[in-house]
Amino acid sequence: QTGKFTFDPGFMSTAACESKITYIDGDKGELLYRGYPIEQLAQHCDYLEICYLLLNGELPNEEQRRDFDYRVTHHTMVHEQMTRFFQGFRRDAHPMAVLVGCVGALSAFYHDSLDINDPEHRFVSAIRLIAKMPTLTAMAYKYNTGQPFMYPRNDLSYSANFLRMMFGTPCDEYKPNDVLVRALDRILILHADHEQNASTSTVRLAGSSGANPFACIAAGIATLWGPAHGGANEACLIMLDDIQKQGGVEKIGEFIDKVKDKNSGVKLMGFGHRVYKNYDPRAKLMRETCHEVLGELGLHDDPLFALAMKLEQIALEDDYFVQRKLYPNVDFYSGIVQKAMGIPTSMFTCIFALARTVGWIAQWGEMIADPDQKIGRPRQLFTGKTPREVQTIDKR
Ligand code: SDX
C-alpha cells in the first residue's frame, strides 16, 4: 500500500530560482554571461575580466581591471598552516578529495571574521576564493606527485601563475608557453558559470542556511566531482583510452552498439546535457582551442584526438543520438585539450572546480544579497506507506 498524494502545481514554481547572472537557451545552444555571448567573451576577454563581470554585472574598465588584478594577485598565498593540512591525506588520494577537504578547511582560517551580510565582506571572500583556488589546486597536484609546493608569483598572470605552480619546480625557471596560457584561460572562461547546474544549486542550498562561503564552495566541489557532472571530462578521457586499447577507430562501431544497449549502462561521456538539446556553444569553442593546442604542440595526429573527431562525427550522424538530441558538451574536448597540455586526467575536474568557483561565489552572493531569500527547503512527493499500527515483536 503506497501513499496517496495530490500533486500541487505550485510546488514546481517554487523549485526555480531567479538570477541575473547567466542565461542559457538549450534549444538554440546559446550561453550568455551578464548578457554577453560566450563567443565574444572568449574572443575579447581573459578569465579575470570574466570574474569581475560575473561578480559585478559589468566588464571592468582599465582602472577597475588593475585594482581587481592587484587584489586577486595579493591574496593568492594560503595560510602556511594549510600546507600541514595536506599531510593528513594519502599521497595517492584523488586530488578532488584533497580539494574538497582543503577548501572546506579555509573556513577555519577566514570565516570567523566574516559577516556575510556585509557586501564588502562578501566581495573579500570572493576575492580570496578566486585567488586561492589555483594555489590549492596546484598544491593538490604537487602533493600527489611528491614534488614540493610552489608559491604563487605576483609578476605572472592568473593562468600563467597556475601553470607555473603546477609544472614548475624550485630547481628550474618554468616559463609557461603563451599558447598553453591562452588555452587554460579559455578553459577557465568556458567553465566559469552555467546557471543552476547541480553544483551551483548545491552552493545555493548550502548558502541559504547561512553557512560560510568556504563551506558552501566545498559542497559545490563535492557535487561537481560526479561523472554525470564535472567528472565527465575525466570519464571521457578514460572512455577514449579504453576504446583506444580495444583497437581504436576500428572498434568504434562495437562501442557505439554498447552505448545503444540500455542494459550495458555504458554512456558516451562528454555527450548529452540536461539543458542543451543542441550543440553546447562551449564545446565548439573548446574544439577550436583543441585544434590550436594540438597544432602548437605538433600533436595533431594524436590518436585520441582523431578518435574523438570520429566519435563526434558518428554521433552527429547516428539516429540514436540525433533523436535523443545528444550533442558534444563542454567536457568532450576539455579533457583532450588538458591531456595535450600535460595535465593528468585526475586533475581535470579540479580545474573545472577552479574555473567554476567564480560562478558559484557570484550565485551565492546574489542569493545572500536578496533580502527576501529564505532557507531552501525542497518539498517531496511522498510515495511511502500510509499510517499503520506497530505490532509487538512477538506478532511480527
Ligand atoms: C556538465 O547542468 C549543467 O549545466 C552541467 C554542466 C555545467 O557547466 O555545469 O554543463 C557540466 O555536467 C555537462 C554534462 C557532463 N556529463 C556527461 O557528459 C556525462 C554523459 N552525459 C549523460 O550522463 C547525460 O547526458 C546527462 C547526465 C548530462 C544528462 O542526462 P539526461 O538528462 O538523462 O539526458 P537526457 O534526458 O537528455 O537523455 C535522453 C536520452 C536518455 O535515453 P532514453 O531513456 O530516452 O532512451 O539520452 C540518453 C538517456 O539515457 N543519454 C545518453 C547520454 N546522455 C543521455 N545515452 C548515451 N550517452 C549519453 N551521454
UniProtKB/TrEMBL annotation:
InterPro entries the record matches: Citrate_synth-like_lrg_a-sub, Citrate_synth-like_sm_a-sub, Citrate_synthase, Citrate_synthase_AS, Citrate_synthase_bac-typ, Citrate_synthase_sf, Citrate_synthase_typ-I
Domain of life: Bacteria
Gene designation per UniProt: gltA
Organism: Zeimonas arvi
UniProt KW RNA-binding keyword: no
Pathways involved: Carbohydrate metabolism; tricarboxylic acid cycle; isocitrate from oxaloacetate: step 1/2
Name of the protein in its database record: Citrate synthase
Keywords associated with the record: Acyltransferase, Transferase, Tricarboxylic acid cycle
NCBIfam families in UniProt: cit_synth_I, PRK05614.1
